[in-house]
């Protein structure tokens, strides 16, 4: 296909990681960049040879040449910028989470329907090589019947930008909700969550959120499955871990306990000492156009001087970035819903928001909205 999508990237910290991917994608034109700080804008623009530059987001949206925006701004800006873009007739890719309230999630789903434009939340985990490996096992029938799913995201957020301190752990839960919902394309129906432990008083008072750890059970709609997810952000001793695990009747997949080690496959009906086996996770660059395959193994932030915290702690996000860009561009070219689409992104994001509400209510069951039909 010769069609090209004019992409504008908004936010050039983590967002700069995607510039060379779009520049080399056969169906993308890395058209414009947007950053409030003009010096940063010009530095990145000069580095990558991008001529169209905006310090004003509204000016960017008024540019008729922009087909799609990829938003990488701070979390509090996601919903507002997404809604503005959709209502300006632009397709939207947005880094996680979709929004910080269920109400905004509903508004974004409505705006996609009203505008006829596509929305994709750029959830890294569901395009990481580990997820793609388990997805392949599932689709080949090697897992058998899936019986249970589990995920965690533990991270020390000390030293991160000013909107992170004291954040309720489940308010940033898509990295663990995404894989447990995404593997079988399940829809979370209701959630129950408990808080555990306490963070320092100076952090707790920022969001009136005392919990060091939040752990939630998710019940899926029209399914016999549930999942367990847990999160921590402050005052918990743990190496970065962004894990998910799947337990099937034939095989199960477990994440390694230590970063850099191989995951474990458990195979049923073998002699006990042979059930568990470490496996190397293959790369899935062959899913991508040849021009961007090399980005599964390296990125802008490989160099120490450019090391963005999310990329360093996230282990390169499992080679997911070119897969995310390719899925977004492909969905626009093919005029289909991306994965995850607007209602799926709203469902995943709202699990975390409502899980925190549940924790504040001592584990109360809280129903999720029917985002497909808002």
Please explain how this structure is put together.
The protein has 374 residues and is of the alpha/beta class. It is built from eleven helices and 15 strands. It has helices at residues 19-24, 38-48, 57-61, 78-87, 102-115, 129-139, 174-182, 201-207, 309-313, 321-334, 342-360, and strands at 5-10, 28-34, 52-54, 68-71, 91-94, 119-121, 146-154, 188-196, 213-220, 226-232, 241-248, 251-254, 264-267, 276-278, 366-367. The chain has a nine-stranded mixed beta sheet, with helices on one face. It has a six-stranded parallel beta sheet with strand order 3-2-1-4-5-6, with helices on both faces. Helix 4 links the parallel strand 4 (68-71) and strand 5 (91-94). Helix 7 crosses helix 11 (342-360). The longest helix has 19 residues, at 342-360. The model is unreliable at 306-315 (pLDDT under 50). One of its GO terms (molecular function) is nucleotide binding. Residues 5-121 form the Gfo/Idh/MocA-like oxidoreductase N-terminal domain. InterPro entries: Gfo/Idh/MocA-like_OxRdtase_N, Gfo/Idh/MocA_Oxidoreductase, NAD(P)-bd_dom_sf. It comes from Dyadobacter chenwenxiniae. This is Gfo/Idh/MocA family oxidoreductase.
What is this structure's SSE topology?
Elements: E1 5-10, H1 19-24, E2 28-34, H2 38-48, E3 52-54, H3 57-61, E4 68-71, H4 78-87, E5 91-94, H5 102-115, E6 119-121, H6 129-139, E7 146-154, H7 174-182, E8 188-196, H8 201-207, E9 213-220, E10 226-232, E11 241-248, E12 251-254, E13 264-267, E14 276-278, H9 309-313, H10 321-334, H11 342-360, E15 366-367
Parallel strand pairs: 1-2, 1-4, 2-3, 4-5, 5-6, 7-10
Antiparallel strand pairs: 7-11, 8-9, 8-15, 9-10, 11-12, 12-13, 13-14
């Amino acid at each position: 296909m010769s069609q090209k999508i004019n992409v504008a990237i908004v936010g050039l910290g983590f967002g700069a990681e995607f510039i060379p991917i779009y520049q080399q994608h056969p169906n993308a034109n890395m058209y414009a960049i947007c950053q409030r700080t003009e010096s940063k804008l010009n530095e990145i623009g000069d580095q990558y040879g991008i001529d169209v530059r905006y310090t004003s987001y509204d000016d960017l949206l008024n540019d008729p040449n922009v087909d799609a925006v990829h938003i990488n701004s701070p979390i509090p800006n996601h919903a507002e910028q997404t809604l503005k873009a959709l209502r300006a007739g632009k397709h939207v890719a947005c880094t996680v989470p979709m929004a910080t309230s269920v109400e905004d999630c509903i508004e974004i789903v409505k705006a996609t329907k009203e505008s006829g434009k596509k929305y994709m939340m750029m959830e890294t985990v569901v395009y990481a090589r580990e997820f793609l490996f388990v997805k392949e096992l599932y689709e080949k029938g090697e897992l058998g019947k899936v019986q249970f799913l589990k995920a965690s995201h533990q991270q020390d957020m000390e030293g991160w930008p000013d909107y992170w301190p004291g954040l309720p752990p489940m308010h940033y839960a898509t990295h663990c909700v995404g894989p447990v919902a995404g593997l079988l394309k399940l829809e979370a129906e209701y959630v129950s969550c408990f808080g555990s432990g306490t963070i320092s008083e100076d952090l707790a008072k920022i969001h009136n959120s005392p919990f060091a750890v939040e752990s939630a059970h998710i019940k899926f709609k029209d399914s016999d499955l549930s999942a367990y997810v847990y999160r921590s952000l402050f005052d918990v001793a743990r190496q970065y871990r962004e894990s998910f695990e799947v337990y099937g009747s034939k095989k199960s997949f477990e994440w390694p306990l230590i970063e850099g080690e191989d995951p474990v496959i458990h195979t049923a009906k073998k002699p006990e000492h042979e059930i568990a086996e470490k496996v190397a996770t293959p790369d899935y660059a062959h899913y991508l156009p040849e021009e961007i395959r090399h980005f599964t193994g390296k990125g802008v932030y490989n160099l120490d001087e450019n090391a963005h915290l999310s990329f360093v702690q996230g282990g390169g996000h499992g080679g997911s970035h070119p897969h995310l860009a390719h899925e977004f561009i492909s969905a626009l070219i093919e005029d289909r819903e991306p994965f995850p689409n607007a209602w799926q992104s709203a469902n995943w994001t709202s699990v975390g928001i409502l899980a925190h509400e549940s924790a504040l209510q001592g584990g109360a069951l809280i129903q999720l909205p029917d985002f497909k039909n808002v």
